[in-house]
Amino acid sequence: MRDRPSFLLLTCCSLGAVLFFGGSGQAQMAAFRDLTSGWRPPADHISLPQTCDKPQSGVADGIAAPSDGSKKTEDVQLTIVSTTPNPLEIGNDFTANVQLKNIGTKPVLIPQVPDGEKVVRTSADRTEEEYEVGDISFKLATDSKHAVPVFLTSGGALFANPDDPASYVALQPGTWLELKLSGIVECGVSQCFAGINPDKKAVMTAWWYQRRLTHKVNGCAEIHGSYNVRQVDSTPFMIEVMDPGDKKSALVFKF
Questions:
Q1: Which residue, of 11, 27, 242, 251, has the fewest CB within 10 Å?
Q2: Geometric angle at alpha carbon 40, from 181 and 47, rounded to 5°
Q3: What is the pLDDT of residues 89-113, one digit of tens each?
Q4: Residues 154, 166: Cα–Cα separation, whole Å
């Protein structure tokens, strides 16, 4: 009978461990994609006939309902986890890890294939093609009020075939997709409205843009379509940005 308290304690501890790990089991990484090793958008596989004297082209856009039935941005949270290096150095390369997490109550489908050529869907008569893409890019604000972010030279993309569930990662509630991406601490667009300056409390954000792209040819007319699925801005990530010239030398001088 003297062993009974020890047995009860062991049983309670075991039950507590089961409850703890069972309750937290859903909060886990569903997949990881390292886009620093490369990614590729698909090329156009259909085109207007060469016999067209007066070719016409147009653009269509709109909103595509997610095939997973989610509520777009309300069910997905984007977070910058870390950067290398930290602090960031103006004009130099960096890598960043981000998490795209399902904070809703239903599964969410996210494209998961880095090579878009493997998933583009072309119709049998070669007059239509379609695929889904999720792009990610980074912005950095170093102005005094952190109100004017600069798009950095950065980015990556994942692709999916809307008719192939295997080309998506199905994020169950509480799970996330982690991505590793690369970039350069410099303006990544043709015209920037702000510069990048040394700042001990700079604000970095990421932007996920998921959409369905279509391309249709009808005689001598073609239409490119872009249909929004979801857009997500990350929570702000505070980080120091420095000029490389401000780094202290790691050399040891002997006198």
A1: 251
A2: 150
A3: 999 999 999 999 999 999 999 999 9
A4: 27
